[in-house]
Specification:
- Two copies of one chain form a homodimer.
- The first copy, chain A, has helices at 56-62, 66-72, 117-132, 148-158, 180-190, 202-207, 226-230, 232-242, 258-276, and strands at 2-9, 12-20, 27-34, 43-49, 75-79, 136-145, 164-170, 215-220, 247-251.
- The longest helix of chain A has 19 residues, at 258-276.
- Chain A contains nine helices and nine strands.
- In chain A, 34% of the residues lie in helices and 23% in strands.
- Chain A has a single domain (2-276), classed as Rossmann fold.
- A nine-stranded mixed β-sheet of chain A has the order 1-2-3-5-4-6-7-8-9, sandwiched between helices.
- Chain A is globular, with a radius of gyration of 17 Å.
- Chain A is an alpha/beta fold and 277 residues long.
- In chain A, strand 1 and strand 2 (12-20) form a beta hairpin.
- The interface between A and B is medium-sized, with 21 and 21 residues.
Chain lengths: 277, 277
């Protein structure tokens, strides 16, 4: 584990760390904010999964989470969105390959060699930070994410009952099996068998009986991807039919950018903090 | 005036605008945040001058000012730090040339052709935004800045008595005539006559009788430039001798980065807002 930076920020420590990942067989970089409360005792952990084209750096620079995390005593973990580096498969377009790992373990060649972000974010990374940062209370976790990372947060939480007390998402892809981004990525990474896709589709998981204890989703009303890629109405219907409580808000005028994420970040973190206490 | 982007953020509008500058004879790009209160009436304006190597984008992405500005009803204006583009003089090193305009009107060739940031930030830009955005209350202005931009904020305020109700700075260069960054830049831009430098040296201006109504400065205790380039003790001594009230704080452990700026941004904006009411 190589600490690339460790900077005092809002009273806490903003770390950026690179390590050799077993899951992806590449170096991986993530950021971790430790609030000031971590100096004195255990703190809950919020994991944030980023969207297409992003690295750990987008939310670390533009997410505006540190002030709230410092006030609320939350640690904030932000992994990369795909493996990177020499020899890692890539393709034309920003919706597949580098920056577009979709939080799955690819089964198809050439992706299966490195695109194992599911194993990375569900197993390897939490085990690493738990071992290296004893101040993290791994019994008090929440998860959130943006766009493709909202998809990641929802599916990771739905498939790990008991691990997360709350899950939220900013403009998530809720039904990748039914939208162009997801259909393209899953075809390449998981192959043509659509049954295999259901394990990575939040709407399908809820239809199949998976539940989370608390679920909050915000989408921007002026998000250009709303109708074609995000389709929050599919999540709303699935939750309604399943009796899964969902706090869904459409925020008029907001787009898909970090201006939207940062505007509602404080709300989401306060909501998680209530459930993590 | 070309509006590059106009995005809803924290309830207000984050604009990025490019225009042809008469002062610099180049296109110039700036960002302007209009808080939600600007929809209903006049709002005070805080101008933020950035540091070496920066454009408008650094503080716009990483300054974390929008939440506070939206709460307090402040507009926030962030110009670039130098002219840019084809034919604009540059030199080796990041402490002179592009990104290093030092908020002066250069008198020496080749810099004098475009490096006229003093005229740009004191005359042209305020006139432009006042004309284009009637919601800005130009009678209620404050100014702040970071590093080289802290130098800019101090000197602009000291030489425009009555224009700014308050001036603050994050890790400012307070005495450019006495430190390597300033000596290098002023030699190139203003020539060898050190008397001409005094008009752009906050400590010299205070020694010469200039005053501001309210002055607040924060510096990071772990700032690597503290002892050699920033030298806040020189400002402290000049203010003490001159009877200029100064609220100076050294923040233990903070560096020179936007982690420092963003941590104390909310404090500075609240302090300005009190004086702008």
């Amino acid at each position: 584990m190589q600490v690339g930076s460790d900077i005092l920020s809002h009273g806490g420590r903003q770390l950026v760390i690179t390590h050799d990942s077993t899951a992806t067989a590449t170096p991986m970089t993530f950021s971790l904010f430790l609030p000031p409360q971590a100096e004195r005792g255990a703190v809950p952990l919020v994991t944030y999964l980023s969207g297409l084209t992003c690295t750990h750096a987008n939310v670390t620079d533009k997410g505006e989470y540190r002030r709230s995390c410092a006030e609320l005593g939350l640690a904030f973990l932000a992994p990369d969105t795909s493996p990177r580096g020499e020899g890692v498969a890539d393709a034309e377009g920003w919706d597949i390959g580098l920056g577009a790992g979709f939080y799955i373990d690819a089964t198809e060649m050439p992706w299966s060699a490195n695109y194992r972000m599911w194993s990375y974010v569900t197993d390897e990374l939490p085990a690493l930070v738990a071992a290296e940062f004893p101040a993290l209370d791994m019994g008090a976790q929440a998860i959130t994410g943006h766009s493709m990372g909202g998809h990641g947060a929802l599916t990771v939480a739905l498939r790990h009952p008991g691990r997360f007390r709350s899950v939220s998402a900013f403009a998530p892809i809720v039904a990748p099996s039914q939208v162009p981004w997801g259909e393209k990525a899953f075809s390449h990474y998981l192959g043509a068998d659509r049954d295999a896709w259901r394990a990575h589709d939040a709407v399908a998981l809820i239809e199949g009986g998976a539940r989370v204890p608390a679920l909050k989703v915000d989408v921007g009303g002026a998000d250009p991807f709303l109708e074609r890629e995000l389709r929050p109405e599919l999540l709303e219907a699935a939750c309604h039919n399943a009796g899964q409580r969902l706090e869904l808000a459409v925020r008029p005028g907001y787009d898909h950018s970090y201006h939207f994420v940062s505007t509602f970040m404080a709300d989401h973190l306060a909501w998680h903090a209530e459930r993590l206490r």
